[in-house]
Amino acid sequence: MFNTLHESGYAHSVEMYLNKSLVGGIYGISIGSVFFAESMFSAVKNASKIVLIFLLAKLNASKFKLFDVQFMTPHLASMGAIEISKNKFSQLLNLHIQEKNHFPYINSSKIEDWNILLNYLQETKEIS
Questions:
Q1: Domain ranges across the chain
Q2: 56: number of CA atoms within 13 Å, CB side?
Q3: What's the order of all strands across the beta sheet hosting 34-42?
Q4: What is the domain class of 2-127 according to CATH?
Q5: pTM confidence score
Q6: CB-side exposure of 103: number of CA atoms within 13 Å?
Q7: Closest residue by Cα to residue 28 from 10, 16, 53, 50
Q8: CA–CA separation, 28 vs 68, rounded Å?
């Protein structure tokens, strides 16, 4: 099922490699301006956190409006996740799932992507 969703442009995987070995990542589904995270993993300490921050920066730059983490954990809270009511989630979901948007291409070898990340980190620092 996930492969079919990927081939249709809905399922995405963001991965981190170290010395050509997969060390962390996130995969999920995007519909409209909403990303539904399905799973995160790390084979190296904090790799999933780095991938998450990079993904959030790219989604923010692409005007995504909602990032569904399914359930709150201390790990996600430490990364800025907030819990919202079921009603608020439904309102945001119904609004933003209808928007035309595309999951951003992420390429950490491009300076443009690093600039997006740096801008995002600066914005979040100013907010907190």
A1: 2-127
A2: 19
A3: 11-18, 21-31, 34-42, 66-68
A4: alpha beta
A5: 0.89
A6: 22
A7: 10
A8: 10
